[in-house]
Amino acid sequence: xxxxxxxxxxxxxxxxxxxxxxxxxxxxxxxxxxxxxxxxxxxxxxxxxxxxxxxxxxxxxxxxxxxxxxxxxxxx
Length: 76
Fold this sequence. Notes:
This protein is of the alpha+beta class.
């Protein structure tokens, strides 16, 4: 099977936002993944997280998938 890497969360401190830090982190993770034989890297962003979507689109993805995620709150 293929070897995939899912990047679960990317965040930067407020004072480092809009300085290319998140872009550099994701680029570096993709580069490291490639050196480890990973065949595909994917990361998710909420539709309304405009900054994250802009960052990921800048990195020239090979595919953009409209995913459906399910969440379940546990009633106590």
